[in-house]
Amino acid sequence: MKLLLVSANRERDPYPVFPIGLSCLAGPLLQAGHTLSVLDLCFEQDPETAVADALAKQHPDAILISLRNLDNVTWPDSRFYLPGLHTIVEISRAFGSVIVGGSGFSLMPLEVLAAVGADYGVVGEGEVVLPLLLACIEAGSDPSGLPGVVVAGASSFVPPSLISRLYSPERSLFNVARYHSEGGMANVQTKRGCPFSCSYCTYPILEGRVMRLRPVEEILAEISTLVSEYGVSYLYFVDDIFNYPPDFASQLCRAMKAAKLPVNWSAFINPDFITAGLMDDMLAAGCDAVEFGSDSGSPLMLKNLCKSFTVEDLRRASLICKEMGVDFAHYMLFGGPGETRETILESFSLMDELEPTAVITMTGIRIYPHTALHRRALEEGLIPETTSLLEPVFYISPQIKDSFAELITSEAMKRKNWIVPGLEINASSAMLDAIRMFKVKGPLWKMIKSLGRSHHRPLA
Prior knowledge:
Blueprint: E1 2-7, H1 20-31, E2 35-40, H2 47-58, E3 62-66, H3 82-92, E4 97-101, H4 103-107, H5 109-116, E5 120-122, H6 129-139, E6 149-151, H7 176-183, E7 186-188, E8 191-192, H8 203-207, E9 212-213, H9 216-230, E10 234-237, H10 246-259, E11 264-269, H11 276-284, E12 287-295, H12 299-304, H13 311-324, E13 327-334, H14 341-354, E14 358-363, E15 365-366, H15 372-379, E16 394-395, H16 404-412, E17 418-419, H17 429-436
Parallel strand pairs: 1-2, 1-3, 3-4, 4-5, 7-10, 10-11, 11-12, 12-13, 13-14, 14-17
Antiparallel strand pairs: 5-6, 8-9, 15-16
């Protein structure tokens, strides 16, 4: 079959993100004998015209649309993406079968499929089941028994199966150079699955709780190709947690050092599994910055968010970074269950003590179905059972809601290393666009060290 693969993501804050999930599907589809063309909407000024032109040129038998996110997960400045997806589907249906997938679709598959009007959907990992679905479409047979396949009009589907082998992305169909130029880095995934139980998190829902690791040799080959064929000099490891399992992270870093790969990189890490020894391995492999998913500096809030670590772990991990000269950022989530003025001020106080390069803060926590946070919001009566979660709904503790934005703004503006995207403190789309013009490599938050003071709605 002739297939058109469409990456629907147009979000560019803080970086344009290469569609690694869609690129992982390309290899299995090529192996199944399909002919592929790709349309990446991230850099298109007029997405509707781009879709119409690609369809008229390619005349595909089926159109595969990847939805990375439902929205930008930012309060109060929320951007909802489904209307744009609905328009793409409407344009595409005149040409062939329309199939929607991706992590955004998989969060609420029945609801998304009904909202956008596609013919089929693929929940979870599509590398194995998508070729089977296409074979059913080509043969005119019913695919509803395939795991993870949703058929238009259905009220249920067979749950998806986790694949045992993780596929390497097929990047040759995409504009890797532009992502590296405008985003400052290339993304690499080393594993899937998350065994942790953070109350709001969808990773275990999307990838399962069993960790599946890619062979180190395969990861090295991918990085080598990025360097030699695309001129990549900076990587971001997109794993939910790079340093878990610690032995695997150490093995990968030592292999990268031995291979003498000319790259620097950063990653998201868990403070509970970082040691001076592992950090040594990471630095030797080219790491120059790390990001902690800390969420809070309050012991009560860490417990309420079901985090696996303590405030003392945050202190210990931060000290390792400071002693070894590594730029580091802490990510905060304010407004969760039990949040009060006092717990928020605890977080500000702890960050003052730890002195990270940057603190990136999200205000309010996006509620997704099948999470512990969703169950708690229902139990507390904050949202009714009938609430649609397609459009962004945020948990903000009733104890702080009335003064929430004002408190965060007031405290963050006193500190030049705090970034609050939703409240546009040291961050705005215009500011990020301006910084990207300087072709910065690596995380933009590292540049916050050059700020003389905090800015509210910079370059707005």
